[in-house]
Specification:
two-stranded antiparallel sheet, 2 strands, globular
Length: 103
Amino acid sequence: MSQDPYCYPHSNVLRNKFDIQDEHDLKAAEARVAAVALFALQDKPLSGPMNEERLKKTHQAIFQDIYEWAGSYRKDVGTMTKGREVGYQVTYGNSQFVPAEME
């Protein structure tokens, strides 16, 4: 179980604009929302250098319809490890170091 402040209490489900609290339902909704956003980006791509600001704008464009914090760094989550459906895990660096490392 996660202690991530971005998750619903006693779960690994990210808080979201649809208030979906089932992990599988959220994954399905996120996939649909992201797919629509990616098609929109294909039609109207973001411009400018590929830098920290553009990365944040890209994240916001893809996930803003499902997560309030889209396009921002998550804070106070420490190091996170997430399982992926294809059978491997991804470990993310400690959130306190991300802004400085991105610069």
